[in-house]
Amino acid sequence: MPQNRKTHKPKKSSSQKCRNNEAKTLEKKEETGIDRLSDLPEPIIHKILLCLPLSDAINTEPLSRRWRHSIWSSSPILFLDEYYFEANYFEYDGKRRRFAKLLMSLQKQKEGASNYSSIEKFGIRMALLGHEWDAAVDGWVKFAVENEVKELDLRIKRVLGLENCLERYRLDDCVFACRSLTALYLDYCLIRLDCVTVDLPSLKRLMLSEVEISSNSFRHLIGGCPSVEYLCVEFCRGLLKIEGSTRNLKSLKLNLTDIYWVSLGSQRLESVEFSGDLSCCDPAILFDKLGTLKQIKLKNLNLTDDQLQRLLHRSPMLETLIIDGCAGLERIQVRQKIKRFSMSRCRGIVVAGVLSANLESLEYSGDVTISFCCRANLRSAEVRISLDPMELSAAWFFRLKKLLKVFAKSKLLTLACPSDQLVIFPGALCERLLPPLHDLKHLKLEIRTLSTSCSAIVDGLIWLFPGLETLTIKSGSINKLIKVT
Amino acid sequence: MASSIENNNEKLTLKSSDGEEFLVEKHVALQSTLLQNMLDSDCSSADVIPLPKIDARTLALVLGYCKKHADASSSKQGELNSFDSEFLKDMDMGALFNLVLAANFMEIKGLLDIAAQKIADTIKDKPHQEVREIFHVENDYTPEEEAAVREENRWAFEGFP
């Protein structure tokens, strides 16, 4: 990782600053505790990094200088990103040439070094200009495969160059015979597997994003990955049918736009996440087996009430349902054995019936105009409501009270809002908002900006919730538990 | 199989950094590559083996892990897996760090693997500021440098969700 990276040299008297930092570190250690993570021997830290997905591992670099300069420079993780050369993956940029040249020269170095320590995780991100640098990328991919790479992350895009060529970078066949591979992430490449044998017995995680791959090649690919547990397919070109035998698949993430058939024959599928457009097909036809599902997440999925009901009907074991940004939904009804239900950013929603007897957690973020209909046994459920209205009016407070009435019987009610003004009902309205909600015992407020004192909030709320026993107010670093007597 | 276990019925004594002595069956101690190497060389099992870097509380945990893994046959992999996940559950960070260091020192690969994974799980999906807070990592960047490093690593949060 280190060779290809810009180094940020401290600009001002670095030795002075280091000494200051040392003094500060000692002080701080006594105050708050010791940094045992950074104090671990480097081989253990590398081991920890290898347990993380590449993106989380890279995210430890900004922790401190030691992480960036010492821990990472000896790490068995190598990621070459043209962004370090200020080239922009998303548009044509002349700085790319420098990065490509570096790829070539680094590679000669690597090939020369006989006892190179193994690479566990390897990644490249760059946009190719014409075909000029394809060979350099191929070389690196082969290098990683020869070093028995376990995790490969390739984001290789082609931008319009002088050759006017927009054909995607074709991934070298050697990747599909890399028996050590446990995770493969691909962005914007071309996979053509007509006469290639796929042998990826260790592969557990496969992510394809914007990849060009035919339905046939996909089936071929999946056929060679018997251990796959996590599969993510999004925005792929040429892929209409997602078909294959994935006996061990546990988790599936799909963008359903353009896809008309999904058949994966897994007996162990536990969670799915869908996005995209379902407007031209029926999920009940789309999927042949959903009986083992425990979790469904629908994110920015365009589907109708009927389609959702059919999807839920086919998943009798469902425990978690998360719906986010599905604007087409108006009325939904959740039964089954659902333990966790979460709904956010569903602008069209009018009525939500949550009739599960097992409900443990309910989260709602959106407008207060919604009507919730819940069973009486909310006693065992924790409810979280996030409010962010455009403007506060008398009508808004009336609707809020109506919403709170449904959840007053819950075990713990959490209200998250940008300002405390949203939960302090205007004095002039109080009389018209009666009767109070006696059932609520535990309330938690998560407020972004606090404008009054905690005691003023208690005073402002107690008339509405006279049965309140505890109130927790959380705002930034403030986390105050108030016992109401 | 049975006879080999009987042969291994020998015991040896380990001494923790705070002076507590642990009597351990040999086949349990063999889970540790360090101890295995010591026993293979001329080190007599009659001697007390000092482990100056490991306190009694951590050593007791380590030996609990070794015993479970030494006693279970390979066919009970599922049982071992659930033991492993229970073993680290609810463990505080201090104990976890002691454990990872002990596993590293004693060369107990399985234990090192699960302890490292547990620490990794704590880091995963968190912004680096939060990781810093949890582990008390001192931020020695200037704000400008930190911004530059974060900007470089922005790719990690783009493209793939």
From TrEMBL, chain A:
Residue span, F-box domain: 34-87
SUPFAM superfamilies cross-referenced by the UniProt entry: F-box domain (SSF81383), RNI-like (SSF52047)
Pfam hit, one: F-box
PROSITE patterns: FBOX (PS50181)
Biased composition (Basic and acidic residues): 19-30
Taxonomy, superkingdom: Eukaryota
Region (Disordered): 1-30
Gene3D superfamilies listed in its UniProt record: Ribonuclease Inhibitor
InterPro entries given in the database record: At1g61320/At1g61330-like, F-box-like_dom_sf, F-box_dom, LRR_At1g61320_AtMIF1, LRR_dom_sf, LRR_FXL15/At3g58940/PEG3-like
Bias kind Basic residues: ranges: 1-14
PANTHER family: F-BOX DOMAIN-CONTAINING PROTEIN, OS02G0105600 PROTEIN
Annotated protein name in UniProt: F-box domain-containing protein
Automatic annotation (TrEMBL), chain B:
Residue span, SKP1 component POZ domain: 11-70
Residues in SKP1 component dimerisation domain copies: 109-156
A Pfam family: Skp1
Keyword Ligase assigned: no
UniProt entry keywords in alphabetical sequence: Ubl conjugation pathway
Tree of life domain: Eukaryota
The protein's annotated pathway: Protein modification; protein ubiquitination
Residue stretches in coiled coil: none
SUPFAM superfamilies, sorted: POZ domain, Skp1 dimerisation domain-like
Region forming the signal peptide: none
GO biological process, one term: ubiquitin-dependent protein catabolic process
Family statement drawn from the similarity comment of this UniProt entry: Belongs to the SKP1 family.
Quaternary context: Part of a SCF (SKP1-cullin-F-box) protein ligase complex.
Function comment: Involved in ubiquitination and subsequent proteasomal degradation of target proteins. Together with CUL1, RBX1 and a F-box protein, it forms a SCF E3 ubiquitin ligase complex. The functional specificity of this complex depends on the type of F-box protein. In the SCF complex, it serves as an adapter that links the F-box protein to CUL1.
Protein name: SKP1-like protein
Organism: Rhododendron griersonianum
